[in-house]
Specification:
This protein is α/β, with parallel strands linked by helices and 211 residues long. The protein has 8 helices and 5 strands. It has a single domain, classed as 3-Layer(aba) Sandwich (Rossmann fold).
């Protein structure tokens, strides 16, 4: 079973993955940036996004080396990439939606994109996200990623994805702590028999959200 953790920056996705990994036999597939050696500055939005699409193929290879018997925790899925592209269009007027959608659908149909069995949408209040971002200088996150308009578009995209592919929506609190009840709920979903979604349904809904 593959569980994806999507949502905005500083909502606690990675912290939640780490906590669940500590209490459940599982494997973790890091987010896309973990596999990137360099994202050259000065390149346009499409060049950068293409790097992330290419990394998804590497994550598929990474997945192929993991035992299918284990619970697999995926730090960001293709939904996060699509939500970012939608936010670029709304908050910056940078429209690469058609090109991105064409490439992503091609990769999905070629089996070069990980399709989770469960989508988790991790969210929290804008003020909390901004406070965490300003406090955590180590990550050196571009302020663009915690501008309110950007965050709102990503939240809306993930919420609409959940309407079509029901999963779990988890709110994290100001301390970024995760309640044991939330971990138990995730575990319950993982053993409930949920499975991957039909490729055509995934591609169709991506088209609806990006056009």
């Amino acid at each position: 079973m593959i569980i994806a953790f999507d949502g905005n920056v500083f909502t606690g996705k990675t912290s939640l993955i780490e906590k669940l990994h500590q209490v459940e036999k599982s494997s973790v597939i890091p987010e896309h940036s973990h596999f990137l050696v360099d994202i050259a500055t000065g390149k346009d939005a499409w060049d950068i996004q293409k790097k992330y699409l290419d990394v998804e193929r590497h994550r598929c290879e990474y997945l192929s080396n993991i035992s299918s018997e284990k619970l697999i925790l995926l730090d960001r899925s293709f939904v996060s990439m699509a939500a970012h592209v939608a936010a670029l269009n709304v908050s910056r007027g940078i429209d690469i939606r058609s090109r991105f959608l064409r490439e992503l659908v091609r990769d999905i149909r070629s089996g070069e994109v990980i399709i989770p069995g469960i989508f988790l949408f991790i969210r929290c209040d804008y003020g909390i996200i901004k406070a965490r971002a300003l406090k955590d200088f180590v990550k050196n996150t571009d302020p663009f990623y915690y501008e309110q308009k950007y965050l709102e578009v990503v939240d809306n995209f993930n919420g609409r994805w959940q309407e079509r592919f029901p999963g779990l929506i988890i709110d994290t609190d100001a301390s970024q702590s995760v309640q044991l009840g939330q971990l138990a709920l995730i575990k319950e979903w993982a053993v409930s028999g949920a499975s991957g979604y039909a490729m055509n349904d995934v591609c169709r809904h991506l088209g609806e959200l990006l056009t």
